[in-house]
Amino acid sequence: MIDDISLSNPILKKSQIPHKLYQIHGRATYYNAAGKGACGFNNDENSFVVAISSADYDSMIQEDENPSKNWVCGRMVRVYHQNRFVDGRVVDRCPNKCESGDITLSPVMFDQLAEREVGEIPVAWKFL
Questions:
Q1: pLDDT (tens digit, 9 = 90+) per residue, 19-41?
Q2: How far apart are CA 98 and CA 112, in angstroms?
Q3: 55-72 confidence digits (pLDDT tens)
Q4: What pTM value is reported for the model?
């Protein structure tokens, strides 16, 4: 069984990061992921990458840590929508107005879950 959680705790520490069996609920959109994100990785338009909300990303930075060395950088996540799922790598903070639990996908990832015209979809996601 997979438990549901929220990442809204602003003082979430690395030891409290969701176990891979936990699902996080939020909204997903897509963005142009080409270039260098907050994690410092170079991505192109065909990369299966994600950006998590700034609140969640920032809450996972260890004290006095460089944001580009956040421990979530490079971690794999699985994103679910209806009867579909897709895996991608965390490479950035959400560039849009995202709330805790929201996730922004590269266009090729979003295409695996829904038509781009929809723009925004409800999702569940988890760290792998």
A1: 556 789 999 999 999 999 999 99
A2: 21
A3: 888 777 766 666 677 888
A4: 0.80
Judged by DSSP in three states, 42 sits in strand
Look up tokens 């999702």; give the residue.
Answer: 123
Instruction: Residue 39: name the closest of 83, 84, 95, 85 by CA.
Output: 95
Q: If DSSP codes are grouped into helix, strand and coil, which group holds residue 85?
A: strand
Residue 38 structure tokens: 């907050």
From CA 106, how far away is CA 29, in angstroms rounded? 9
Q: What secondary structure does DSSP assign to 23-81, as a single string?
A: EEEEEEEE----EE-TT--EE-TT--EEEE-HHHHHHTSPTT--GGG-TTTT-EEEEEE
What does the alpha-carbon distance between residue 91 and residue 15 come to, in Å, rounded to a whole number?
21
